[in-house]
Amino acid sequence: MTNEPVEHRSPARATLAISCAATLLVLINFTTPIPTVQVLAKALGSGPSGQTWILGSISIGLAACLMVAGTLADDHGRKRIFTAGGTLLVLASAVCALAPTTAVFVVGRVVQGGASAALLASSLGLLGHAFPPGPERARATGLWGAMVGGGIAIGPVYSALLIKVAPWQTAYWIIAAVSALVTLWGLASLTESRAEQRRRFDAGGVVTVAAGVSLLIAALIEGRGGWTQPHVLAFLVAALVLLAGFVWIEKRAADPMLDLQLLRRPAFVASAVGALVTGIGVIGFMTYIPISAQKVLGMSPLQSALVLAIWSGLSFVAAPQARRMVGRVGDRQQVAAGLAVCGVGELALIGIDSASPWWQFVPGMALAGIGSGVVNAALAGLAVRSVPAHRVAMGSAAGNASRYLGSSIGVALMAAILALSPRGGGPAHEMSVGMNYAGVVAGALAVLGAVLVALCRERPRPRHAVEVPGELELERSA
Fold first, then answer.
1. 268: pLDDT confidence band, cut at 50, 70 and 90?
2. Using one digit for the tens of pLDDT, what is the confidence trace for 20-53?
3. Where would I find the Major facilitator superfamily (MFS) profile domain in this sequence (predicted)?
4. pLDDT mean over 205-225
């Protein structure tokens, strides 16, 4: 029990509640189209490529804007970026609800991604400022991580239930309304925080990273139709040039958006690698579980959403419990262990076909859910402590950018594997074989990620080391 006065704890509790509500909303919105993508595609006249854009477009806004949003939050005010993100989410959700074509809907989802980036980066930054290192911060980041699993659990079920009684547009009108309420709550209750010294705006870094990541994800989405298509190759080359330019600019900038010296920090590398592998090997694979359940077992969108909820629901339950391991098992070790459990769970899903009972999903989804919950909670704490206190929003943004870039890579990778599965035997057989291959790849990637994170060992600081301004605070928080 903390001895901090009640009047000091109340703002921190309000910050925790608002940050968790915003994160839950972002993940509900992120996963809303997953079980209903075929309904949306039919209503909007989308082809196979359009369906992929419906699923993946929000990741462009998220991955491209997260580090930008984190930097702006640290330098110009985390509450200010939070409310701007919430307002933008209201407007973008309305665009999705009013969309007459696939192109307009995709634009709305990209903007939703940018708004979500502002909410995610600023909310975890607000938590890092409100809660000092220790058990209270572990509890706060554990609850924040639980909202990731909770949103993934609720989003598909929410949209699958709603589409039974209302047009698909209703889901996005409700998201707009709830976004407005959360934004007003934040405006009334959050306390502003920012770095004591404002850094110069890194315009070159902002442009190159946003454009480079956007083109990379666009190439991954379009690559499903063939990796040798001229426009896909052009996107990939342009993305690589821009991202190389970003690294060149950051090395020379007086106030870089991403301090590349952080890559020498094992905790920061572990956070980025863990988040990237979570996106590729876990989220990418799980995105196709509802589609697989519908095509292989003939489930309805609601039934397939409930199958996915076995994974995401247990993730929601497990994340807050991870704080009980603080002091006995470090956050880096928790990430490694959680990824390993995810990998075992995904491998346990191999062998499901049209003759399988629905409950054959349960053991693998349950293991992957428990592992994901531990990973989500530990990654949140690791991202905050791996950077100096005045850069907490940027640290959270870098970790989340890795996660959503990874999810885009994962979705494209799983789509490519499914496309390569042997033809013949009917759609159900082709999907089951493809998902078995995908399960092997995803499980192996998760286990490999666990090994890589475990190898990011942190060395104790020598007593005679010279204290460098900006690094001392980082070492103490670590």
1. confident
2. 999 999 999 999 998 888 889 889 988 777 887 8
3. 15-461
4. 82
- Find the length of the chain: 478
**Does residue 141 sit in helix, strand or coil?**
helix
Q: Are 129 and 116 in contact (CB under 8 A)?
A: no
Give the N- to C-terminal CA distance of the chain in Å, as an integer.
23
Query: What is the C-alpha to C-alpha distance for residues 118 and 333, in angstroms, rounded to an integer?
Result: 29
Long-range contacts of 458-463 (CB under 8 A, 24+ apart): 458/266, 458/267, 458/332, 459/266
What domains are defined for the chain?
11-191+257-459+467-477 (1.20.1250.20), 203-256 (no CATH)
Say which residue the tokens 């497990």 belong to: 318
pTM: 0.78
Return d(Cα 278, Cα 337) in angstroms, integer: 12
Q: Look at residue 236 and give its three-state secondary structure.
A: helix
Contact of 333 with 454, CB cutoff 8 Å: yes
Residues 6+ apart with CB under 8 A from 346: 281, 282, 285, 364, 368, 439, 442, 443, 446
How many helices and strands, by DSSP H and E, does the chain display? 18, 0
